């Protein structure tokens, strides 16, 4: 635990503390939501003084906004999937997206994004902006040119699967082995991707 002096004068280069705070915030916001979560509980989970949370993020709203980011791996995973041969893109996209939910390093971020978007109009606006930014990025935009509607439908399909498996935790969905889940979902995702914009 840092001393009071360390909390008042944290090093701007101390990314480890910032990362621990974000990880703790994602867990707290993901399980309890924005209103029920306190900065003190996040600081305690992260093992830092609450003043350090304020230093990095300013306020609870600032911290919450910082948790509403796509995992850094997300855009690259999507671009890689869409760079596969056309007939493999459905399977690759399903695997890439659902892997973000399976991986402990990114699952918290995905959970906070989704739960927040479902429960808050402001968070929904933020998620729309993130997705629009992803779609507007030069790599993904070039890969989905002429089939943006199909890509949006494919991602909507995958988001629904994610909600039932990882948020609502529907037992039949949770019980499916990951590879079987991908195999069952991939054909529908592929059908969406194969549809050109009208």
TrEMBL record:
Which controlled-vocabulary keywords does the entry list? DNA-binding
According to the lineage, what is the superkingdom?
A: Bacteria
Pinpoint the HTH tetR-type domain residues. Answer: 15-75
State the DNA-binding region(s): 38-57
Q: Quote the InterPro entries the UniProt record gives.
A: Homeodomain-like_sf, HTH-type_TetR-like_transc_reg, HTH_TetR, Tet_transcr_reg_TetR-rel_C_sf, TetR_C_16
| GO terms of molecular function | DNA-binding transcription factor activity; transcription cis-regulatory region binding
PANTHER family membership: HTH-TYPE TRANSCRIPTIONAL REGULATOR RUTR (PTHR30055), TRANSCRIPTIONAL REGULATORY PROTEIN (PTHR30055:SF235)
Name of the protein in question: TetR family transcriptional regulator
Q: Give the organism the record lists.
A: Luteimicrobium subarcticum
Its lineage reads: Bacteria, Bacillati, Actinomycetota, Actinomycetes, Micrococcales
């Amino acid at each position: 635990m840092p001393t009071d002096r360390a909390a008042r004068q944290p090093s701007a280069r101390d990314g480890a503390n910032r990362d621990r705070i974000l990880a703790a915030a994602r867990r707290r916001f993901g399980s309890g939501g924005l209103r029920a979560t306190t900065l003190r509980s996040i600081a305690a989970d992260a093992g830092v003084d609450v003043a350090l949370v304020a230093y990095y993020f300013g306020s609870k709203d600032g911290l919450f906004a910082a948790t509403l980011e796509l995992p850094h791996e997300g855009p690259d995973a999507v671009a890689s999937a869409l760079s596969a041969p056309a007939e493999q893109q459905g399977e690759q996209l399903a695997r890439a997206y659902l892997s973000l939910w399976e991986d402990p390093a990114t699952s918290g971020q995905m959970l906070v994004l989704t739960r927040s978007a479902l429960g808050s109009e402001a968070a929904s606006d933020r998620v729309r902006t993130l997705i629009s930014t992803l779609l507007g990025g030069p790599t993904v935009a070039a890969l989905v040119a002429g089939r943006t509607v199909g890509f949006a439908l494919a991602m909507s399909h995958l988001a629904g699967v994610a909600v039932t498996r990882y948020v609502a935790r529907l037992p039949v969905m949770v019980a499916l082995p990951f590879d079987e889940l991908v195999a069952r979902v991939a054909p529908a995702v592929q059908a969406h991707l194969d549809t050109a914009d009208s």
